[in-house]
Structures are given as structure tokens and as C-alpha cells.
Amino acid sequence: MYGKKILLVLVIPIIVLSCRAPLFSVPDTGKIMQKGESEIVPGFTSVYFNTKERSELETNNYGFQALFGTGIVPLLNIPGEMGFRFEYASSSESMDWGYIRLMWKLGLSDNFALGFNSTLNYRENSIEYNLLDPGCLVTIPVNSYTEANLSAFLTVMDSPADDSVTSDDFGIVPSFNFSLSIGPDLDKWAIRPAVGYLWDPDDMHTKWCWSIFLAIRG
């Protein structure tokens, strides 16, 4: 059982393609819903781009995601979720763009899950995509009204995240997120303020973001 899970984690990171402007804010948690349950999460995110020369607001993003509990995943015998996410990125410096993302989660425990994202990034004259970016998510209960959520994902970027930056190989870019789930009944709804950080190991650029999400379960 655990051999299959470890193999999945090792193999999946290889199956990725490039995306110039990765979607790295995460409104999700390490928990897995029961089969038949669902969660709708509208939200807003501000993304900031940093290089050695400058730091500035890149985009304001508006969107929502929907997740659905799928029950036990065949062969792996662990619970799963799947869903989708739409996001519109408004930029004052260049043309706007949008994201369509498909998401899968596999629950390894009550508060720890593996996550996999397939993301399409579309602009007026181009379409880019990441086939499958892997990551992990963990939820830490604080009290009856608050939970802390941590996540880390990997994205391959072999083209610049900014038109003025040139590089032949950007490699694998990690991103990290921290959020809080706050509400009187976390099984029904929660407000999720979040911060995220994307780091280029070659120090060509970094990004950070802050977000506010509203999670509604049904």
C-alpha cells in the first residue's frame, strides 16, 4: 500500500510542462471530504513579482474553485477529492490572462493529503499549461473555530515569468502557502486568509501573494 503511494510521489513530478505565470495561491486544506460532499471557494488574490531590480504588484486575481469528495480511490484504497478552479488575473502593466485548473487530492490521513494540479494559462495570443504539478497539504487543528493549513507544490518553469527577464532554464520552482480556516462551524463554512510564496532557486525572481477566500461546504 505505502509502496504505491511513495512511487506515485516520485514519478508524478516528472510529468510536467512549462507555464510562464504559475497559479500558486492555494485555498485548500489537508482534509478530504466524504463521498457526496462538496465545497465552493470564491476568492481574491494579489500577486507581487520581485527581482533584484524591482518589486511590484503583478496582478489582482478573482476566481473560485469547486471540490467534490469522490470516496475511496480504486487500487490505492484511500479517500480522494477532485475539482476545478477558474481564475481571472487583471494586470495594469500587460494584457490580462486567465487560468483553468483541474485538481486531485489523495488523503493519507485525516489531516494530510497529496495534491496534483493540471493548469491551463490562457492569454490573448498564447496558451500554456502544466500537465501535473505535485504537492502536499496539511491541516493543524488549533481550536474549535480555527485551523492552520500548510501546503507546498512544485511547478516546472522553462520560460520566464516576466517578459523582461531572460533565462534558458528556469527549472523546478517550489511554492509554499499558509492559511487559516476561521468560522463558528468549520464543517459548514470558513473564512480563509492566506499568504503564498514562490521561489526560484536560481534567484532570478520570486513572487508572493496574499489572498482571502470563503469556503462553503454542502
Describe the structure.
With 218 residues, the chain is mainly beta. The protein has a single domain (2-217), classed as Beta Barrel (Porin). Helices cover 5% and strands 60% of the residues. The protein has one helix and ten strands. It has one helix spanning 2-11; strands at residues 38-50, 55-73, 78-90, 97-109, 112-122, 127-143, 146-156, 172-182, 189-199, 206-217. It has a ten-stranded antiparallel barrel with strand order 1-2-3-4-5-6-7-8-9-10. Strand 9 and strand 10 (206-217) form a beta hairpin. The longest helix is centred in the first third of the chain and has 10 residues, at 2-11. The radius of gyration is 17 Å and the shape is globular. The model is unreliable at 1-19 and 159-169 (pLDDT under 50).
Number of helices: 1
Number of domains: 1
Radius of gyration: 17 Å
The strand count comes to 10
Summary?
By secondary structure, this protein is mainly β. The chain contains one helix and ten strands.
